[in-house]
Amino acid sequence: MGDRKRPANTANKKTKIEWPSVKPKSNLQITRLKDDDLFTIPNYLTCDESKAFISTAESIGFVHQGSLGPTRGEAYRDNDRISVNDPILAQEIWEAGLDKSFANFKIRGKVAVGLNPNLRFYRYTAGQRFGRHIDESVDLGEGMCTHYTLLIYLSGDSGQTKPKLKNQVGSRDSADQLVGGETVFYGPRNALVAEVPPAEGMALLHVHGQKCMLHEARNVSKGIKYVLRSDVVFA
């Protein structure tokens, strides 16, 4: 399947965007960090696919998004963002393997049917982060509601650095790679559950809504962190 052009509604302008194709993957491996509430899928996007999404997002142009933090009743946020409403692209990403990964998931009798077509691209440069917060479910109408957050890291360690659970230590020493920007999850009494370093092409999924764990995107110390964000829809 080749690249295709179609209108994309973004936060800052409307233009015809040439999205990269996302090919279906086989033999995807799920790493569960907290049962089915938190897991990763390495190599969900290839290196070429990840870089193509970054290039396309940069061609659209990011818009800064910020918030002032707990003193204003909200999580501290400092990053750059693009929002795209694209059901076709969302379906293609879903059918690259998430459809099979969620085949046996049920929440209150509902099954996973796809991704929220509201796709967001985040860019974090050195010094930017997203403070501790939870993700809310989104009611899409007609009995459809989101129950999982999907993050696909478009930059990071191409060697697929493994997530660290509590009490584990590790290092990421290459001078050329992204430093910082880990997604960190907390349990009761702010106990560390998992620390997930960005790894190029890796998908991270966690339950949101009422069961959402408190989490944050740590400060980027070096390099640029790019993330593709959507939500898994149940119906």
Automatic annotation (TrEMBL):
<dbReference type="GO" id="GO:0031418">
    <property type="term" value="F:L-ascorbic acid binding"/>
</dbReference>
<protein>
    <recommendedName>
        <fullName>Fe2OG dioxygenase domain-containing protein</fullName>
    </recommendedName>
</protein>
<dbReference type="InterPro" id="IPR006620">
    <property type="entry name" value="Pro_4_hyd_alph"/>
</dbReference>
<dbReference type="GO" id="GO:0005783">
    <property type="term" value="C:endoplasmic reticulum"/>
</dbReference>
<feature type="domain" description="Fe2OG dioxygenase">
    <location>
        <begin position="114"/>
        <end position="235"/>
    </location>
</feature>
<dbReference type="InterPro" id="IPR005123">
    <property type="entry name" value="Oxoglu/Fe-dep_dioxygenase_dom"/>
</dbReference>
<dbReference type="GO" id="GO:0004656">
    <property type="term" value="F:procollagen-proline 4-dioxygenase activity"/>
</dbReference>
<keyword id="KW-0735">Signal-anchor</keyword>
<keyword id="KW-0479">Metal-binding</keyword>
<dbReference type="InterPro" id="IPR045054">
    <property type="entry name" value="P4HA-like"/>
</dbReference>
<keyword id="KW-0560">Oxidoreductase</keyword>
<dbReference type="GO" id="GO:0005789">
    <property type="term" value="C:endoplasmic reticulum membrane"/>
</dbReference>
<keyword id="KW-0408">Iron</keyword>
<dbReference type="GO" id="GO:0005506">
    <property type="term" value="F:iron ion binding"/>
</dbReference>
<keyword id="KW-0812">Transmembrane</keyword>
<keyword id="KW-0223">Dioxygenase</keyword>
